[in-house]
From TrEMBL:
CDD domains: fer2 (cd00207). It is an enzyme of class 1 (oxidoreductase). Keywords: 2Fe-2S, Iron, Iron-sulfur, Metal-binding, Oxidoreductase. This is Isoquinoline 1-oxidoreductase alpha subunit. GO terms for molecular function: 2 iron, 2 sulfur cluster binding; isoquinoline 1-oxidoreductase activity; metal ion binding.
C-alpha cells in the first residue's frame, strides 16, 4: 500500500507500487484535472507538484511518491483563486483547456521559486505543449501572476463557479454592466 499526501489529505493507494501516479490520481482518487496526454513525459498535461516540484505524473510511480506531498490542479486552489489561475483567465491564455492544468502547475512551481521570471526563464520552466498555441499570452499571464504574487498588481477576475453573476456584480464593480 502506497501512502502519500494528496492535496493536503493523507491517501493510501492499494495498487501496484509501479502504477504511474497519473492513473492513481485519475482512477483511484477521481482527481481528473490531471490529464493524460502522451504517457511518455513529453507534453506536460499530467504535471503535478511533488514536494513543491513540478513533475510529470505519468513518469513517477506511486511507490516513488510514497511519503511525499502531491498537489494537483484541484489542490492548487479550490476556488480557482490562485494568481496563476486568475492570470490565465485574465490574459485569455486558455483555449481548449486540455493543457491548462499542467501549465498552471508548472507556472505555480516557477513562481514559488521566482515571482519575477523573464521570458527565457518561463520558456525553460514551462515544458508543456499546447496545440492551441497560446504561448505569447501564456508568458504574459505568468508574468502577471508574478506581479500579483509580489503585490504589484491585483486581478479583478470572474467569480468562482457556483456564484451567480448577479451576486458577483454586486461584489466586483468591474463585472457590473451599464444599464
Amino acid at each position: 500500500m502506497s501512502r502519500l499526501t494528496v492535496n493536503e489529505r493523507p491517501v493510501a493507494f492499494d495498487m501496484d507500487p509501479q502504477t504511474p501516479l497519473l492513473w492513481a490520481l485519475r482512477d483511484a482518487a477521481n482527481l481528473t484535472g490531471t490529464k493524460y496526454g502522451c504517457g511518455v513525459g513529453d507534453c506536460g498535461a499530467c504535471m503535478v507538484l511533488v514536494d513543491g516540484e513540478a513533475l510529470r505524473s505519468c513518469l513517477i510511480t506511486i511507490g516513488e511518491a510514497e511519503g511525499r506531498f502531491v498537489t494537483t490542479i484541484e489542490g492548487l486552489s479550490r476556488d480557482r483563486s490562485h494568481p496563476v489561475q486568475q492570470a490565465l483567465v485574465a490574459e485569455q491564455a486558455i483555449q481548449c483547456g486540455f493543457c491548462t492544468p499542467g501549465i498552471a502547475i508548472a507556472a505555480a512551481a516557477l513562481l514559488a521559486r521566482n515571482a519575477d521570471p523573464g521570458e527565457e526563464e518561463i520558456g525553460q520552466a514551462i515544458p508543456n505543449l499546447c496545440r492551441c498555441g497560446v504561448y505569447p499570452r501564456l508568458v504574459r499571464a505568468i508574468q502577471r501572476a508574478g506581479r500579483v504574487m509580489r503585490r504589484a498588481e491585483t486581478i479583478s477576475a470572474a467569480p468562482a463557479p457556483g456564484i451567480s453573476p448577479d451576486d458577483a456584480a454586486e461584489a466586483v464593480p468591474a463585472l457590473r454592466t451599464s444599464e
